[in-house]
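[job 0412] stage=complex_fold ligand=zinc ion status=START
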Amino acid sequence: MDGHTPGETVDMNSVAVVCRRAWNAVDPRDRTEMKSPAQTVIVHHTALRFLISGDGVVYEGRGWGIVGAHAKEHNFHSVGIAFMGNFNDELPSSESLSALLRLLHIGVLHGHVRPNFVLVGHRDVAKTACPGEHLYSLLPKLREQLQNH
Ligand SMILES: [Zn+2]
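[job 0412] stage=complex_fold status=DONE, emitting structure tokens
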């Protein structure tokens, strides 16, 4: 169960990613490579390492393996993934939630994220409302879904 309609086959190994160049992302000021796979995945609702749009398309931010600038003191061992929108007001789409699960599956598969990574919301590690009430309240369910894969 990952947000898709029952019976629909979901290819966990594929997710639509738009690379930085394709969406004309401005180059980050520094590009530090991570020394080991990320142990934490921090969910946001602002523009960071990866952005997930409401239609489930992933926009590459820094990309895998590159230290981001999304959560002070956690950047060196975590990946930041942001959902486009303000989830204090709106609910994240099932497409975007499914894209997150597939992205994480791929991240683990390719060794960018530790298999036993911890999924947290930005507010778990900093004083912020990010990633919004509605998205944050879905994290336990997402953790459960990740365990079943
Ligand atoms: Zn955040």
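Residues 94-109 form the longest helix (16 residues).
[job 0412] exit 0
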